[in-house]
Fold each of these.
Amino acid sequence: MKVTTKKAGIAGLAMFGAAALLAGCASAPDDSGDGGSDTAIDFQPCMVSDAGGFDDKSFNQLGFEGITKAAEELGVEAKTVESKDETEYAPNLTSLVDQGCDLIVTVGFALSAATVESATANPDVEYVIIDDAADNDFDGTVDAENIKPILFDTAQAAFLAGYAAADYTTTNVVGTFGGMNFPTVSIFMDGFKQGVDYYASENGKAVKVVGWDGTDGSFTGGFEANDQARQTAQALIDQNIDVLLPVGGPIYQSAAAAIRDSGREIALIGVDADVFETDPSVGDLLLTSIRKGIDVGTYDAVLAAGNGEFDASPFIGTLENEGVGLAPFHDFESKISDTLPDALDALQASIISGDVVVNSYLSE
């Protein structure tokens, strides 16, 4: 099935600033893995997580894997710091600067303000921020010349997931909820709803999306796997859904617990990583996952910086450059319709060609 992409390259971005960023995008990261060196170099790569931590089985973990792989190939050791909450972002960055870091990778839009402040104060240090444009004044440009944003138009891959969910559902009700209503969260929900609606119009099957109306919806108020996330998932389960997309790092764990408690057959859709691989404990529930190439995007950026080739141009992951995509159906291969894989292949090609338009703040 072609829509299952390989791991290749890779948002607090304001909608009206996206077009300017896209105009200057870098090419897709190279997954050749041949940029390493046998000789130790004078280069110190560093990373700060958001409050999810490096074991979130999602984007923090993927970023950690990317910097670790690059550091190994460069013959150096990465310094990595976990943040327990938002009050630690700025102090963690200051600490890494003081320790002589040449490149600092910050994981997630929550670190945007702290990253811009640190980069502005330390122009000789190079920065990479994952899932954010570092455009806090919303003028369509990165706020410091030494920051490279790595962004993902996940609406495209989520569109495919929505189409698959609409094809799979038997209750004709599917649901989604997020951590907080930020662009990097709602972009998944937007694409998912558009994909469901597209399937309905193309196939004459009335499928309802609950939890997101295109503007607002169900949110937990944070990104922790807790009772609030479980209650939010349960509220959607009570509306007769049989497919659920939680968007917000580890909140999927609470959704999985609610699904198991329900005793019903409800399929889960993962985000960021192929959750079937990162968290096998929920593998039996996963229809698919909406992937971002965070690991390889981070690897590429760190490797380039270590080789003296840091490029601050923003990178936008799309279906075309394989920065985003669907994970395999894994245990659900035998449960999906025979026609779905070919339909998704054709749909992906239509999105890439522009025949099918997927709207997102990164495509405007």
Amino acid sequence: MLNSYNILHGIKTISYSTVEPVCGHHHHHHRRHKPSDTKKKVSICDDFPKNIPPPDTNTTAYLCVDKNGCCNFTTVQSAIDAIGNFSQIRNVIWINSGMYYEKVVIPKTKPNITLQGQGFETTAIAWNDTAYSANGTFYCATVQVFGSQFVAKNISFMNVAPIPKPGDVGAQAVAIRITGDQSAFVGCGFFGAQDTLHDDRGRHYFKDCYIQGSIDFIFGNAKSLYQDCQIISMANQVSPGSKLVNGAVTANGRNSKDENSGFSFVNCTIGGTGHVWLGRAWRPYSRVIFVSTTMTDVITPEGWNNFNDPSRDATIFYGEYNCSGPGAEMSKRASYVQKLNETLVAEFISTSFIDGDQWLQFSDL
């Protein structure tokens, strides 16, 4: 289990105090060998899974990353660097369990890369830049994906910068920025506080993912479908009956009616702490919908926020359909929220929303 989160009552939250420093020490426990035992386990790599990486095929090449040196690569970035530009085949980077404390960039010249971890609770890439330290929110991500046809499976992306206090300047701390088109994430974790997941642009698919944050923690101007995801607010607790709102799940950046972008959440769950909006209108044509999603009372009764700009009420598209739980009560929702019906939600709820029939290869997932 990664030492960088506490598992409390089934809800994972980052414990920042336990994250290893950049030059963390790794202690390997060696058992004492009896004289008759000398020919048995003597290497940390003796337990390494056989047949990893698997042999290459005509359509797939495999690379292997292990922080203990049991593979060709000890860092994720070095494996990415070893892949040739504009490869026509899929390059699967198999990453062994562990915390990889590094900043990772997948350039536009490297499409068709898969990062395959061993489970989002045991394999993670982490760093601690903020908007202040990186000269801007767009540059502070732990992992930046510019290449198209990117896939990530069973791995976490973490930004372990300190949790910001309200009003802190430059405290945005992105775990991943996804700019490449046609990208898919299955069984992944996204951990941070403010601006965790920068769903920047392109068409993206998220399935069975765990997404944690506090303020605008899913933001950007991509066109994305989130299916069966667990969304956890880690905003500070709010006293019962308080009207204070101290977070937002989404901040969608659709800027004009001509932009074919927006976020659709289907069959997700929302829980955690604090008192947060489902979304706030970061840009005037912000578009987000929630369908068949279970919401705890972490969601405020009004549900949404127009970024304190009433002129946006006429242009934003915020909708809910068939949601449940105490946070899904529609009676006090903001006036501009669309109460959708089955016909209106049809275009948003399947992979056709992101043109998945053209690119989403379930054989790759």
